[in-house]
Structure formats: C-alpha cells, structure tokens
Amino acid sequence: MKNSMIRIIRILFVAFLFTSIFSSCIVGKKKYEDLQSQKLKVDDQNTELTNKLTIMNTKFDSLLNKYKELEKKQKELTETSATEQEKLNTELKAKIKLLEESNKKIAELQALIDKQKKASKDLLDKIKTALLGFTKDELTVEMKDGKVYVSLSEKLLFKSGSAVVDKKGKEALAKVGEVLAKQKDVDIVIEGHTDNVPLNGEVIKDNWDLSVLRATAIVRILTEDYKVDSKQIIPSGRADNVPVADNSTKEGKAKNRRTEIILSPKISDLIKLLDINN
User: Fold this and answer.
1) pLDDT by 10s per residue, the chain, length 278
2) 226-227-228-230 Cα dihedral, nearest 10 degrees
3) Distance (Å, rounded) from C-alpha 193 to C-alpha 177?
4) Is the residue at 65 inside a domain?
5) C-alpha span between 274 and 272 (Å, rounded)
6) SS3 state of residue 151
7) Distance from the Cα of residue 172 to its chain's centroid
8) How many CA atoms lie less than 13 Å away from 32 in the CB half-sphere?
9) Contact call for residues 257 and 210 (beta carbons, < 8 A)
10) Residue 242 domain-assigned (yes or no)
11) Where are the alpha helices (DSSP H) in the chain?
12) Which range marks the domain in which residue 249 is found?
C-alpha cells in the first residue's frame, strides 16, 4: 500500500514536471515568434529609413551643388558689378568734367554776350546823342538783334537819282564819323536801298548801281574825312529788294529810299570761344 502511494506520487510528480516543462516550451516559442515579428518590423523600418536617408542625401547633394553654383554666380556678378561700377564711375567723372567745362564755357560766352550787348547799347546812346539835331523823317536810330541801325533817308543825303551826298547829309555823317572813328571794335556795313521805280541812265544804269554808289559814297566820306578804319567797313547795295514799306504809295517809296549804317560789335572773341578745336 505504501509502495503504491509512493508510485502514484512519483507518477503525479512526473506528470506535473512534464506539464510545467511543456507549458514553458509553449510560452518560450510564443515570445520568440513575437520577437521575430518585431525584428522584421524593425528591419522593414530600417530599410525604409535607409531609403529615405539615401533620397535625402541625393537631394542634399543636389541642393549643395546648386548652392555652389549660385555662390559662384554671385561671386562673378559681384566682380562684374564692381568692374561695371568702376566703369560707370569713370564715365561719370568724365561727364562731370565735361559738364564743368561746358558750364565754364557757357559762363564765358554769356559774359561776352553781355559785354557785346553793353557795347551795342553804349554805341546806340552815343549815336543818338550825336544825332539829336535831326528829325525822324531824316533819320532813325534803333537797336535790332544786338546791332545798331542808323537809317538815313534819301531826303537827308541825296537828290533824287543822285549818289552825291548833300550838305546836310554830310553834317549827319560828320556826327556819325566822329563817333565811329573812336570805335575800333565795331564792324560797319553801309547798305544802300531804293524804291522799285526803274532807272535807265547812262551813268547810273539801274537801282543796283544807285544803291551801291550811294553806299560807297558814304564809305569814302567816313574813311577819308573822318578816318574811320576802312578795314571795318563793308559797302553793300540792295536796290529795291529789302523794302520797309509799301512801294505802291508815295510815302512808302520815300521810306524805302534810304541808306542804312549797321553797326555791330566785333564777334571774334565769340567765334574763338565757340571754336570746338579750342
């Protein structure tokens, strides 16, 4: 009986031990399978991350190359910009210098123009003062375009169709000659003008002849009697080509029969200043 109990106990113990071992084996296998599953997941994640890393590295390399290209272009642009800026600065300095020279020349030119205007005004005043004793229908004195115009009527200077200066005309020319003899920086043009009535003489053939002869007659008086420098004077005959009034009326014809003494300060200084080669 006792032995039977011992045998039963042994059998139960062995059964218990086997059950425990079997249960342990089952639990260990499940954990192994779980771990294996987790390992596969980790491997998949690692592979995915590796692929993403590879893509990111590729993109990074591409961006790095672009950055280097942009950096190179920026450097080139900076160098080009510096060169262009230097070129622009040089051009600007040249233009500023040219502008300063131009402004200086303009100032000099304006000073000469003002001087010429003053000289013309002074001459106008002197001529007007010298000719105060004559009437408007005998002569007029005025300023036009910076020049002084002394317009002497035929009535004052000549008989009709003649180029010989009358006594009263010589008196007027004496006044003008005394002023002009002192004016060494004045150009003088003597212009003879007629009306449109035709001339047909043996000595004076036409209005061209008459206008020129009257101009030269005045030139001789001014240069020979009053020592006006002949180099300053130019005689000119205009016939009836520059009327100042209507030749269809008696009054108009009388106004057109005139001799003009045109006085202008010499402009040699202006010409020199305007000469682009200077």
Assistant:
1) 666 677 777 776 666 666 666 555 555 667 767 777 777 777 777 787 678 778 877 877 887 787 788 777 777 777 777 788 888 888 888 889 888 888 888 887 788 788 888 888 999 999 999 999 899 999 999 999 889 999 999 999 999 999 999 999 999 999 999 999 999 889 999 999 999 999 887 889 999 999 999 999 999 999 999 999 999 999 999 999 999 999 999 999 999 999 999 998 887 655 555 664 44
2) 130
3) 20
4) no
5) 5
6) strand
7) 50
8) 6
9) no
10) yes
11) 2-130, 154-157, 167-180, 207-220, 250-256, 268-274
12) 131-274
pTM flag (> 0.90): no
Q: What's the CATH code of the domain at 181?
A: 3.30.1330.60
Question: Can you read off the two tokens belonging to residue 16?
Answer: 């218990």
Buried b / exposed e along 5-38 (16+ C-beta atoms within 10 A): eeeeeeeeeeeeeeeeeeeeeeeeeeeeeeeeee
Give the pair of three-digit tokens for residue 258.
């005139």
Q: Distance between CA 253 and CA 245 in Å, rounded?
A: 7
Q: Is the CA virtual torsion 265, 271, 272, 274 positive or negative? A: positive
Euclidean distance between CA atoms 217 and 208, whole angstroms? 14
Q: Are 130 and 182 in contact (CB under 8 A)?
A: no
Cα→Cα distances 120→134, 145, 148, 149, Å: 21, 10, 7, 10
DSSP bridge pairs for 264: 187
**Residue the block writes with tokens 């995915």:** 48
Examine residue 240 and state whether it is found in any structural domain, yes or no.
Answer: yes
User: Helix crossing, 2-130 with 167-180: angle to 10°?
Assistant: 140
Length of the chain in residues, anyone? Answer: 278
The secondary element (H helix, E strand) that includes residue 192 is strand 186-193
Answer whether residue 204 is part of any domain: yes
Q: For the chain, how many structural domains are there in total?
A: 1
